[in-house]
Write a structure and sequence with these properties.
Blueprint lengths: L3 E2 L4 E2 L16 H5 L3 H13 L5 H4 L7 H16 L3 H23 L8 H14 L8 H9 L4 H5 L4 H15 L15 H14 L3 H28 L6 H24 L4 H25 L1
Antiparallel strand pairs: 1-2
Helix pairs in contact: 2-5, 4-5, 10-11, 10-12, 11-12
């Protein structure tokens, strides 16, 4: 019996190897794979294993990070431009990076794990983080008896309350002492700033924590004054202190914009990407008019 993926009408049994590759014995695991995702795992395993692709076989978790980041941004671009066909391709590339990273981890000598362990941990996390959905059957039955219905019980929380619960459970599970723990410093400064503001906003101590912005700005201003005075007394510093003061002032303005955008429900990075896309299109149009004029 064929397996249908979602409501797309795509059948798992519809898969056929590309023309000309039907008689390659290395592809036997791919042909025999039970699901589409198993086929991805199988072909990545062939590529990474001895006798596979020399380039793939040399990759490490670190060397693949650039690809992961690039493919993620390419998928974002496809989504924001509503390019459904490109979304199919780019989402596949993101999937490849996840499976490839896990395959590399599987070969680690000290702490190996595979994509199945990753998937099972993900499933458990999704279940435990959604107690409002996956309540015990007797709880759901009790809701039915009260006339509320199991569905109503599962939707009793607002999206905002659910998100707050998720963040609270996440902090407890990871034993985080600060709301800022776990924010990646590898990401760009703007999305990182947005994440910092978002985390603080969800904290019950948000007002007190946001005082750090004001205190930091005030301290920076006082420091700038002292550094500027020192700069005037000594030309040997090349004006670095003054430049730092200007840089901090710009950074404070950006932080203020990020906070204001979040209050208005705006994803500041997405807004900037969309505006940049508009500007880039206009630049290309102007260049075309100049060249054809």
């Amino acid at each position: 019996m064929s397996k249908i993926s979602g409501e797309t009408g795509y059948h798992n049994s519809d898969y056929r190897l590309p023309g000309g590759f039907e008689h390659c014995s290395k592809l036997k695991p791919v042909v025999e794979a039970a699901t589409a995702l198993d086929r991805v795992k199988a072909v990545v395993d062939v590529l990474y294993s001895p006798g596979g692709c020399p380039w793939d076989g040399k990759q490490t978790n670190e060397s693949l990070l650039k690809n992961l980041l690039e493919e993620t941004y390419e998928y974002i671009d496809a989504v924001e431009t509503h390019d459904r066909d490109n979304m199919r391709e780019e989402l596949g590339d993101v999937l490849l990076q996840s499976v490839f990273q896990a395959r590399v981890c599987e070969s680690d000598a000290e702490d190996p794990f595979d994509i199945d362990e990753v998937a099972d941990r993900l499933v458990n996390k999704l279940i435990t983080r959604h107690p409002h959905v996956f309540a015990a059957d007797d709880v759901a039955d009790s809701s039915d008896a009260d006339g509320n219905g199991g569905e109503a019980a599962s939707q009793s929380e607002s999206p905002e309350a659910v998100l707050a619960l998720w963040e609270k459970m996440k902090q407890q599970e990871k034993h985080r002492k600060s709301v800022l723990e776990g924010i990646s410093r590898a990401q760009g400064a703007l999305p990182r700033a947005a994440k910092v503001v978002s985390r603080i906003s969800k904290s019950p101590n948000a007002d007190e924590l946001f005082a750090a912005f004001v205190d930091s700005s005030s301290a920076s201003t006082q420091q700038d004054v002292e550094q500027t005075q020192a700069a005037n007394q000594s030309e040997s510093n090349g004006g670095n202190s003054v430049e730092r003061g200007k840089a901090d002032a710009y950074a404070d303005e950006i932080f203020a914009i990020v906070r204001e955008a979040r209050t208005d429900g705006i994803d500041i990075e997405a807004a900037l990407r969309n505006r940049l896309r508009d500007i880039e299109e206009k630049v290309v149009q102007i260049e075309s008019e100049i060249n054809n004029g």
